[in-house]
Amino acid sequence: MRFLKSFYIHNTFFWYLAILAAMFMTSYWYKWLYPIAWICTMVLLAMFLFDIVLLYATKNSVKASRSLPQKLSNSDHNPIVMEFISTYDFKTGITVVEELPIQFQKRDFKYNTILTKKEPKIFEYTVRPVERGEYYFGNLNIYVSTPLRIVKRRFLYLKNQMVPVYPSIIQMQKYDFLAISNKLSEFGMKKIRRIGHTQEFEQIKEYVPGDDFRTINWKATAKSNQLMVNQYQDEKSQPIYSVIDTGRVMKMPFNGLKLLDYAINSTLAFSNVALKKNDKTGMISFSKNIETFLPAVQKPTYLNSILEKLYNISTEYTDSDFGLLYAHIKRKVNHRSLLLLYTNFEHITAMRRQLPFLLAIAKKHVLVVVFFENTELEELINTSADDLQGIYHKTIAEKFSMDKKLMQKELQQYGIQTILTKPEELTINTINKYLEIKARGLL
């Protein structure tokens, strides 16, 4: 049974059979071709048996391995590495059929290559998951054939390897490096013009053009006989909370990724940057109930706790209770904090229903409401309308787009900070707003 399960006929063999069939048909008119056709048949049969002997003479002649990362990063292209090595004395052609996790809905993965004896071959491909959870990689099927290409032998490796998909670790690491090197502005982070300065003293340095005259240290200037100024830095150990709405409004997908997952990826990267800047970070997720609450803590290892909580967050099909959120923040968050609220309002009336709770939160804390542009509507707005129905659709799309801008202006009139962003630009814009608030000393 093992032999039968691993035994396959190569496609080339059927071409040989077609040629033989054509020779037998032609021999009806050309009698001299009939014995030649039988000789070819015997030769093909001998080659068939010889090919089987070549493939099955030794066991485990082809070895394979698949290298998976410990965690896959959601919404990113994650590399998967496969390695093959052959101990056959001849060149072998292999076809690799990979059984990818069911979440990818891909059943046509195939890779063809040639192996020489004891010469490893490495193949790398990428996968882009768009859902968090457990992903099971199935069997690695390798079909081996000799240069005769008559039969194939299947080798089966690696049954059911599981790897979890976490929020975007790759994105977090990218911003982590920039935060350490203080080069966030090189990756699209805009430089913020400082209005005044905070009172966190850092050092005394020589004056350079552009420094604030009000920071001149006259005693140090008199001692060194040149202008010296006090240099200040952003205040540290300030509490920062990422507040994630897990209601039905966050279930809307863009580029295969739900708004909730965009918010989760942004929370992880932003929390890491805030910790590198020596601030305290925490997290709240809510819908009809408060699902997750992590108090703000300033510890680098705290990021693992945030990551594990983000991994288990899922959306609900209900409307979120902002009144419950306000009550929870009033009871649990006692110090003035920066609250980044990830939510979405598709209509201005939906925002106005929650406005009293947002205003109540903003009285004690610095509240930043983060909501999303509908990029698919933008595409509709930018296309020309060819008929009356197209004009109608374009007009409605422009109205919804204008509602988003009106919501942003109305929130700003009440003193609430806002971020209206495309989903794919969420992380950059969130970190920009954080740097701006720190630079302006609003917290």
Automatic annotation (TrEMBL):
Keywords: Membrane, Transmembrane, Transmembrane helix
DUF58 domain span: 204-368
Transmembrane segment boundaries: 12-30, 36-57
InterPro entries xrefs: DUF58
Domain of life: Bacteria
Keyword RNA-binding tagged: no
Name of the protein described by the UniProt record: DUF58 domain-containing protein
